[in-house]
Amino acid sequence: MHIRVTQQSRNITASLYGELDHHAAAWAKDELDRLIWRYREADLILDLKNLSFMDSSGLGVILGRYKALKAAGRSMYVKNPNRQIEKVFNVSGIYKIIKKLK
Amino acid sequence: MENKNTMELKLPGISVNEGFARSVVGAFATQLNPTLEEIADIKTAVSEAVTNAIVHAYPKSPGEIHISAALEGRAITVVITDFGIGISDILAARQPFYSTSKDDSRSGMGFTVMETFMDGVNVISTPGKGTSVELIKKIGQQG
Lengths: 102, 143
What we know:
The structure holds two protein chains of two kinds.
Chain A: E1 2-7, E2 11-20, H1 22-38, E3 43-54, H2 56-71, E4 76-79, H3 83-92, E5 99-101
Parallel strand pairs in A: 2-3, 3-4, 4-5
Antiparallel strand pairs in A: 1-2
Helix pairs in contact in A: 1-2
Chain B: E1 4-12, H1 17-29, H2 36-57, E2 64-72, E3 75-82, H3 90-93, H4 110-117, E4 120-126, E5 130-138
Antiparallel strand pairs in B: 1-2, 2-3, 3-5, 4-5
Helix pairs in contact in B: 1-2, 2-4
């Protein structure tokens, strides 16, 4: 998988490409952590439009980054999950804590 | 339609094989003419079971993982077997958000995802001998 980053005024968008499973999780975690600490004030938007697959290992990566951001008083949002990823999100109840942008 | 077919796959339990394993089982399942959502359900559940075997079964060095699948009628049964340390408390392992891992990126949702995405999940484990996870999906249930 790979990640492309774009910066807006108050937030950064990380667009995820490929498949986020356990194999990709360690790399994705490190990349997102790097982003979080490089842009120290910004909220993080994860654009999942080009993420074709995610399982509970990917969910763990997202929840872990959410916790780090929240501890720093920052927010995380997700947008454009495909049907498979939406189903994993719904099973986990993640939308109780992370907002989905239209 | 009368279907009866089987396949077997043996892999070393290394993470690069997760994507391969779920793709193979997903491709095999297409013989039942499933919807895209049904294929995605099967691939997701297989990914969870294979990942569990890789992450938990072999803490010291990667061991072998066997995957078998059978098509019969309108159902696919997939069995993921490892020969690792086993699960001492299966009921606890199946609880949502339960994880023995210290890594904060493990969600503990693997079995919950399998149970939600499949029609049947059966686990047999013997400490010190290994674990078998059986996943059953009936195709054509979603209308």
